[in-house]
Sequence to fold (231 residues):
Amino acid sequence: MCMTTRDTAMTHPHIRAFLFDLDGVITDTAEFHYLAWKKLAAEEGIPFSRGEADAMRGLSRRDSLRVLLNGRPVAEETAQSWMLRKNDYYLQMLEQLTPDSLLPGVRRLLSEARDAGIHLAVASASRNAHLVLDRLGVLPLFDAVGDGHSVVNPKPAPDLFLWTAGRLNANPRQAVIFEDARAGVDAALAGGFWVVGIGSAVTSERAHIHVSDLSDVTVTSIVRGLTVLSD
Ligand code: BG6
Ligand code: MG
Fold:
């Protein structure tokens, strides 16, 4: 794993909470979202590529459809039925999900953070977040879950992170967001949070710390990385 930190000066962090995005951070359901949209797009004859799928990361179901349509007008009834169909495809794929589907390092990092007294939450745009966490067997590990039902304004607005951090009684400067999506990193920064960007869809220039995945990330490496920024 390669870890890079952004070169800025900030106040010394006292970290009380970790907020994890779900799809693409805790488990690879970002791939299922991609495959489900791809199936719908193929059936409707709409061009769809990996690049568009990356742009959809972190976006609500409605905003993802907007990316897919790329300005093509469709009636509201059609939009509703397409979103429902995509979700049906996605739900079928979720049947493959088991506790083994956690991404590398996630279970270890969660338990290490809990032992260090850090409060844990999921903050996901998905309306299926509880179902996914349940299938992964990790729902009881979290003190709070913010999902696609929790707030009106989706990412890149900071509302979901602020709502979820509030459930943990943590202010943004005491909380680290783990995100694989541009919209999520932007939401975290807009809310004044620390942010760890994960993977190739987000850039190390935007996130305070950037990692390729969570396999080697520890509580110490995060706090140390943020302290470097505070010096
Ligand atoms: C986000 C995903 O977590 O949830 C997006 O990154 C997805 O790709 C969004 O569109 C909404 O998910 P759902 O399950 O409510 O359609
Ligand atoms: Mg994500």
Summary: The two ends are 24 Å apart (CA to CA). Residues 50 and 230 are 37 Å apart (CA to CA).
